[in-house]
Recover the amino acids of this structure.
């Protein structure tokens, strides 16, 4: 009911604008026939009962929905009148008056609006009852009216003649009228009937009762009645002679006076005085044609301007951003990224049509917030980059046009990094969500990359330098790495990077596809280096790789390597046989520790990319006690996968397709990992099992920083769990690190030191670098690559001796932990002398301690003392406190 | 004896009665429908009202009058008019004009306007 009420209010407001326009036109069209004016009121009436309207650009209605139906849910209620000046003066008051009190979930309007709706209903009822009662009273009074002729009746209860009855209208006149009066009066009433006024007036009254709260509508109705009367007068009078007009006027006067009633009383407001009507009648002249024409044209214009709603804006033209012009440029939008507010994923260039769909999403013309802050909701972001912006963005902040939608796609704002726009309402959030979904599921494998056709004569160094500036002037002191991937049977693409101490990441290698060189071109480039003495043949390594968008090479084996070697070097006078092992894209996607085969022991599971390009494949390798136990290869449609551990400590796969996450379970059957998927689209690929040819290649190897299958010593750092190898190196996520660095320092304005523990292949890390790379920096270049270093522990205060992993036998547990209420709580490493926070109560004490395994019963623990008191909170179940000598220590469940 | 008051419409009814009496009420209904345009219920109501007022009597569905034409006071007819109808018409009724009280001055002014117009003068 409240919604209906609000839509009536909105209609009333929209119609009020038309009433004002009609008032103006009435004044200007005084000389025009009154029937035109009555038509104008018809326009108003339509606006008052019809909630729908076409949209047009010439609409003069400032806003078709001043009060949004959702206003009761808003935390800052606002109205959108369509006039910024009015909005800015009213909305702050509304926002303050009706803001929910902090702590309230309801906005006060949720109470007031329903009350208003009820009052409105009462008003309608009252007016309707009045109408019905009046009608019945009249009917009673004229029940004894006698037939004069046709449909005309006379009654002693009639003072002023009138028409009654909608279907079979009858005219009622008094007995005491002269013949002349009778004549004119009846002519007037007949005119009413012919104009169907016996319908319009009651209908108008009914509409008025819906909009009784709007004083403009009362005015409109009163004026409508006036105009109807004068239109009838005109209709009768235009065919009367001047003497007859005098008689008509006399009749008017007599009827309004009554034979004997003469008393002084001012005329009521709105009533057409007899004086005015007589004056009009006596001075009536047929209107000139042009007046008629102007009147009709004006009415049509008014109808169009006020019967149509304003068109909403659209995304592409918000504040004149005109980003749709991106599709008109000769270069397409080169690069598109999506973000969920935290991390950015590249989805590649998108088609023009999709970009147009995005730009044409409809938005309100009016802003819904006056904030230009950059901290607004960025739950769904799309970044559009031109080629130039894409190039300059490699390792730093993404340059481009940022389009931010909020979590439910009802609001949008855009930032072009010069000036952010205001926030606008999205008219069709469902459509926006759809478009966002399409864009974020666009991936690099879509045919958006143009493979440049390279002529085999492109050996001119100058033109090569211009075309591949990034492949020249490379530092060669560590050699050059030439990456080659196969696109088709006889088509190869290459890129070259300078040699470095580490392995290049998958992303860095994939970036080479942006500007690939043909074999000929790459040979020419390498020849250049050799000829100039910048590099020697022994320093050039050929690395065949598979790229997801290239559809050719599935396996890179010895034969393939040899073929490529021959292919590349055959044009050189010396044959070179040196090449290194191909760099597979077998980097690990995710790892997890859980019991996958139900044997009661937890296994260490790794998920890696598979050996194919063109098809998405992935492998799962399972290690138990450091030995590989299972290995299987799967294929499925391109998706994002990771391990997830359920509450029951069961390992499952989480799969993310276009913002939807589904879960797949795994189990072991007959020595193979089986994945259960609702979609039935996860299938085995190639040979399975530890003895398959792929297994020998794809099980992570100790060299090159991969997973060490030697005995593990698990260390549960409070940030990440990592492992110490028997040879003194460290590992995390399959990567080997030479050093474990403990870096302590004081953050600006901190009261205590912060300690970062990094596993690192770099010998030294400064405190500042450690700090920024720990998650504080918004600059992508501030972070370490996975091979360089990874953060495993972080705490404030002095590093406590008890938490350093050295000194524990490898079979024992390092981190203090206690099982309580079915969950294991781990020492949070914030010290042992914290005060006990409020509302924590003593719930028990440590009953048993076993340092060799994780506690399996409540009140059992590891690295704690029997008898230590345990304190828990009634509702905050994630944290408990354990009492120590000098205070309390915080223990938390691991998330 | 005081002559009972009769409204104009009732007077028209009585004219029919005087013409046809004594008459069965059913026939009277027919006649009223034809001449006055009354619904049967209206006729019966009027018969009842007039019989209560002592204008006619209705015995065994036969209606006869109790007053004669001459006796009915014509002058009383007009008096009824003002007392029976209080107030103006509802807003949604299409009327010739509202019965409004208008000042002397205005009445005169309008009358003058009309008279001047008849004489062919300006307004």
């Amino acid at each position: 009911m409240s919604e209906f009420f609000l839509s009536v209010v909105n209609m009333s407001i929209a119609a009020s604008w038309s009433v004002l326009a009609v008032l103006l036109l009435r004044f200007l069209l005084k000389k025009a026939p009154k029937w035109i004016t009555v038509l104008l009121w018809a326009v108003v009436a339509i606006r008052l009962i019809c909630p729908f309207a076409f949209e047009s650009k010439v609409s003069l209605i400032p806003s078709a929905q001043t009060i949004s139906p959702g206003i009761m849910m808003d935390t800052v209620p606002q109205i959108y009148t369509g006039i910024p000046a009015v909005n800015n003066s009213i909305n702050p008051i509304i926002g303050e008056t009706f803001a929910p009190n902090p702590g309230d979930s309801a906005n006060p309007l949720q109470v007031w609006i329903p009350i208003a709706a009820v009052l409105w209903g009462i008003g309608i009822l009252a007016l309707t009852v009045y109408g019905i009662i009046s009608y019945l009273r009249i009917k009673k009074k004229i029940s004894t009216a006698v037939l004069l002729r046709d449909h005309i009746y006379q009654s002693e209860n009639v003072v002023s003649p009138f028409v009654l009855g909608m279907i079979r209208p009858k005219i009622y006149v008094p007995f005491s009228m002269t013949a002349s009066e009778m004549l004119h009066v009846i002519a007037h009433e007949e005119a009413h009937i012919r104009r169907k006024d016996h319908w319009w007036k009651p209908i108008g009254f009914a509409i008025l009762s819906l909009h009784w709260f709007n004083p403009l509508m009362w005015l409109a109705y009163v004026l409508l009645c006036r105009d109807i009367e004068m239109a009838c007068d005109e209709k009768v009078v235009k065919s009367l002679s001047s003497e007859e007009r005098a008689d008509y006027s006399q009749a008017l006067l007599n009827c309004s006076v009554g034979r004997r009633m003469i008393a002084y009383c001012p005329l009521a407001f709105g009533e057409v005085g007899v004086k005015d009507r007589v004056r009009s009648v006596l001075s009536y002249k047929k209107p000139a044609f042009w007046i008629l024409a102007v009147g009709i044209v004006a009415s049509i214009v008014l109808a169009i301007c006020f019967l149509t709603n304003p068109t909403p804006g659209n995304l592409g033209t918000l504040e004149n951003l005109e980003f749709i012009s991106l599709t008109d440029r000769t270069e397409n939008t080169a690069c598109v990224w999506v973000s969920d507010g935290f991390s950015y994923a590249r989805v590649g260039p998108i088609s023009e049509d999709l970009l147009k769909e995005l730009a044409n999403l409809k938005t309100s013309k009016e802003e819904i917030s006056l904030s230009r802050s950059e901290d607004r909701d960025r739950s769904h972001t799309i970044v559009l980059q031109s080629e130039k912006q894409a190039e300059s963005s490699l390792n730093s902040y993404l340059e481009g046009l940022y389009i931010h939608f909020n979590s439910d796609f009802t609001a949008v704002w855009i930032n072009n990094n010069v000036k952010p726009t205001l926030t606008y309402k999205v008219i069709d959030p469902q459509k926006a969500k759809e478009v966002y979904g399409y864009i974020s599921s666009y991936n690099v494998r879509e045919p958006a990359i143009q493979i440049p056709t390279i002529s085999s004569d492109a050996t001119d160094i100058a033109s090569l330098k211009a075309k591949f500036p990034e492949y020249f002037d490379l530092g060669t002191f560590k050699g050059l790495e030439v990456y080659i991937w196969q696109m088709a049977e006889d088509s190869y693409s290459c890129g070259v990077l300078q040699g470095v101490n580490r392995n290049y990441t998958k992303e860095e290698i994939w970036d080479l596809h942006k500007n690939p060189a043909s074999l000929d071109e790459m040979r020419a480039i390498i020849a250049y280096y050799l000829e100039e003495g910048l590099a020697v043949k022994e320093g050039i390594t050929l690395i065949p790789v598979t790229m997801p968008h290239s559809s050719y090479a599935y396996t890179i084996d010895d034969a393939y390597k040899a073929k490529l070697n021959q292919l590349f070097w055959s044009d050189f006078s010396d044959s070179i046989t040196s090449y290194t092992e191909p760099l597979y894209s077998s980097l690990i996607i995710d790892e997890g520790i859980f019991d996958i085969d139900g044997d009661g022991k937890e296994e260490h599971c790794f998920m890696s990319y598979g050996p194919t390009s063109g098809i998405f494949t992935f492998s799962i390798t399972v290690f138990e006690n450091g030995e590989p136990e299972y290995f299987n290869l799967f294929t499925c449609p391109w998706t994002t996968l990771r391990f997830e551990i359920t509450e029951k400590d069961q390992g499952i796969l989480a799969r993310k397709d276009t913002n939807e996450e589904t879960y797949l379970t795994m189990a072991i059957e007959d020595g193979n990992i089986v994945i259960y998927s609702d979609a039935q689209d996860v299938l085995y690929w190639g040979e399975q099992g530890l003895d398959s040819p792929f297994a020998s290649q794809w099980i992570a190897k100790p060299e090159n920083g991969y997973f060490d299958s030697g005995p593990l010593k698990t260390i549960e750092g409070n940030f990440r769990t990592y492992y110490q190898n028997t040879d003194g190196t460290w590992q995390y996520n399959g990567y080997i690190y030479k050093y474990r660095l403990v870096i302590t320092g004081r953050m600006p304005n901190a009261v205590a030191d912060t300690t970062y523990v990094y596993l690192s292949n770099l010998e030294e890390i400064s405190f500042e670098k450690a700090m920024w790379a720990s998650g504080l920096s918004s600059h992508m270049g501030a972070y370490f690559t996975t091979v360089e270093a990874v953060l495993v522990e972080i705490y404030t205060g002095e590093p406590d001796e008890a938490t350093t992993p050295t000194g524990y036998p490898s079979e024992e547990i390092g981190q203090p932990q206690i099982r309580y209420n079915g969950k294991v709580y781990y020492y949070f490493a914030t010290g042992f002398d914290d005060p006990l926070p409020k509302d924590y109560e003593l719930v028990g004490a440590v009953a048993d301690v076993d340092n060799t395994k994780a506690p399996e019963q409540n009140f059992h623990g590891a690295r704690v003392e029997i008898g230590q008191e345990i304190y828990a909170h009634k509702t905050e179940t994630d944290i408990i406190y354990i009492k120590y000598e000098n205070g309390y220590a915080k223990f938390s469940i691991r998330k | 004896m005081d002559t009972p008051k009769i409204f104009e419409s009732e007077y028209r009814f009585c004219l029919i009665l005087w013409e046809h009496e004594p008459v069965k009420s059913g026939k009277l209904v027919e006649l009223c429908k034809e001449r006055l345009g009354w619904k049967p219920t209206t006729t019966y109501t009027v018969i009842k009202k007039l019989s209560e007022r002592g204008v006619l009597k209705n015995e065994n569905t036969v209606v006869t009058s109790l007053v004669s034409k001459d006796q009915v006071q014509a002058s009383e007819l007009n008096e009824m008019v003002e007392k029976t109808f209080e107030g103006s018409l509802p807003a949604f009724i299409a009327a010739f004009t509202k019965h409004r009280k208008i000042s002397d001055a205005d009445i005169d002014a309008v009358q003058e306007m009309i008279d001047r117009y008849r004489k062919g003068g300006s307004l």
